[in-house]
Amino acid sequence: MKILITVCRFLVGILFIFSGLVKANDPLGLSYKMQEFFEVWNFSFLDHFTLAFSVLMIVFEIVAGVAILLGWRMKLFSWLLLLLIVFFTFLTGYAFLSGKVRECGCFGNCIPLTAGQSFVKDLILLVLIVFLFGVRDRIKPAMGTIGSAAFLVLATLFSFAFQGYVLIHLPVVDCLPYKVGANISEKMKAPPGSIPDSTVITMVYEKNGKQMEFSASQFPSDFDDTYHFVKRYDKLIRKGNAEPEIKDFILTTEAGTDTTQAVLEARGFKLFMFMKEVEEQSPDWNKAFNIVLTMAKSKHVPVVFITGDYDRLVAWVGKQGIAGDVTLLKCDATAIKTAARAIPTLYLIKGEVILKKWSYADFERALPEVAALPEQKSSDSPSNQ
User: Fold this and answer.
1) Which residues, 6 or more positions from 53, have their beta carbon under 8 angstroms from its beta carbon?
2) Is residue 337 part of a domain?
3) 5, 206, 293, 340: which could join 274 in a potential S-S bond, CB 3.0 to 4.6 Å?
4) Same domain assignment for residues 40 and 123
């Protein structure tokens, strides 16, 4: 029994620490996943608190894993772990059974799990934690109170500090579709060998006050002018897996013209500045960015601002006096959330391939990279393609 208890403790503790660290690499990702759940449940009023919830949940997950490994205060942490895994199992079970949320975000973007896989994982963890809960009085601390408390304090401080770092400087391990080296256009295509959705054209007609559906190839034998057309739609028969990694990345001009391919296919180097929203008139990063912009302009490297807050950005660049030096394009805010985990985020792109990316806190690191770029012809600008 002692060996079984030890094995369960290590499995649960290591899995919680690992899961917490993976999510700590991108707490905004978990925050967005929480917003997805809240949207389904009509709890949108909690959207402003999801980042705080995310950070605290990740800290607790890591600290609880450390406590289990140390065997410290098991009466307390066994209860907390039991409540947490019941909550997680409810979430993943809801996602799996309802089909309204495709992924739970249990291991972030680095290890994507389907709702079904996450649900099975949590059911197994639930069994293990229930077992540990039942034998909690038999688990003895691995070290003294002072040593255990010191480890937990260090784990807590590390969890907060690491999340604070990645929120400012971007994830340490980039598992997003827009990672360095990715070809944006290729990521916008369905994966090779994937299966598209299977649909059938379905007609809806009304007769004698009742609506009836039938496929375009199977009209009723008594079909005549007593049937009144209502609508037609594509009915999903089988869900495929032909979803591209990058979705909704559509760049449009002020007039609404789709210019995505023209911008991506432009030759040479270019800089993308992702700004989901505009809040400050003179942000701290403005000085470093202006130097980058000056260097880019001298080398004929186009700078494209991509935003979901177009009108305010127009006003902002006007006040900064750079309206003639940049191109402003609109994009869906959800796509920008995925592309830019910090606002703003600057990309260096060659053709369609992402070469470098920097958060606002690291714009100074972009200076030597842009300075080292070769001077290119002005005709390589996206606006001239």
Assistant:
1) 31, 34, 46
2) yes
3) 340
4) yes
Q: Domain with 364 in it: what CATH number?
A: 3.40.30.10
pLDDT digits (tens, 9 = 90+) for 235-268: 777 766 667 889 889 999 999 999 999 999 988 9
Domain limits for position 149: 2-169
Residue at 191 is within a domain: no
Whole-model pTM: value is 0.81
The rounded distance, in Å, linking the Cα atoms of 114 and 116 is: 5
